[in-house]
Design goal:
With 297 residues, the chain is of the alpha/beta class. The chain is 45% helix and 14% strand.
Length: 297
């Protein structure tokens, strides 16, 4: 390499080192599929999954996180797993993760829990998903003792899922950050689960609303473990959900470095509190994301 080229290259690196994270990400960040958590549009999915998915594709969403798996019937949204996969293939769409309802099984026998996990694995493998995600703990499970017990069970679940060639992740809400005699559920889950078996799905809305941490701080403590993100905005007055760009979260400032995070997938989400309805909210968030945030991802 001649001297002029060397100086040019090192000059670019030197400038990049001084840039804020958002600017650096413009240069180095990989591109990810634009994702949507289908719980955000659950009313329309209940009525007409095919048309709803087609509409979302027209907005730019091409990857999804599902919810509502029927374990006994092995079905999604009234379709068998294989039929739903055919529907996705026909539309040129993917499902990279699913929220599966583990909560009722966490207090059941090991055999019942294992059987449910096996059913989830079959469904996720049929959809060619990368992850099975635990999205929710019932109120009675949100005690220090339960967090410790559930963390042990998550390691077992994660090993079972990993052996099947899939990833397992835990999705945070706000209750994990609530103080309980000097401790909290989030720290227990982080410290007592095996990072090789239990990845983390970072819901940035809940981190900002309910904790004293920033998404960047959490990722710094557990780099490469936050393989998925949920991106949603917070209403400026009620602090409820709202469309991207309508709320108080400045994602251009708080968005973490995807490489440090270990990011593989992200999903835009709005669980409710729609300005008009779920259809218009999906469009509003897509428009804002493509204009202001997609360049970083």
């Amino acid at each position: 390499m001649n001297r002029r080229k060397f100086i040019g290259k090192t000059g670019v690196l030197g400038v990049a080192a001084m840039l804020p994270l958002s600017s650096f990400s413009l240069i180095t960040a990989p591109k990810f599929k634009m994702g949507y958590q289908l719980f955000s549009i659950r009313d329309e999915m209940a009525k007409d999954p095919k048309s709803t998915l087609g509409y979302l594709k027209g907005l730019g969403y091409v990857d999804f996180e599902i919810y509502g798996f029927d374990a006994e019937n092995g079905s999604y949204y009234g379709y068998s797993s294989s039929d739903f996969k055919h529907l996705l293939d026909d539309l040129g769409l993917t499902v990279s993760s699913g929220h599966y309802n583990f909560s009722p099984y966490l207090d059941k026998s090991e055999d019942e829990l294992k059987r449910f996990v096996d059913q989830c694995i079959v469904g996720a493998q049929t959809l060619k998903s990368d992850y099975i995600t635990l999205p929710w703990l019932s109120p009675e499970q949100r005690t220090i003792d339960h967090y410790k017990l559930i963390s042990k069970k998550m390691n077992t679940i994660g090993e079972q899922i990993k052996d099947a060639g899939l990833g397992f992740a835990y999705h945070n809400h706000g209750y994990e950050f609530e103080d309980q005699n000097g401790g909290n559920g989030f720290d227990i889950i982080i410290n007592e689960t095996d990072p090789a078996l239990v990845k983390l799905q970072l819901d940035m809305y809940w981190v900002i609303r309910s904790s004293n941490h920033s998404p960047k701080e959490l990722i710094r403590k557990q780099p490469k473990r936050y393989t998925m993100w949920h991106i949603k905005d917070m209403h400026k007055i009620s602090r409820d959900y709202t469309e991207l760009g309508n709320g108080s979260i400045n994602y251009q400032e708080i968005l973490p470095d995807p490489k440090e995070s270990g990011l593989e997938h992200y999903y835009i989400e709005q669980g409710g509190n729609f300005t008009d309805n779920s259809i218009k909210s999906a469009a509003t968030s897509a428009q804002y994301f493509k204009k202001n945030l997609q360049r970083y991802l």
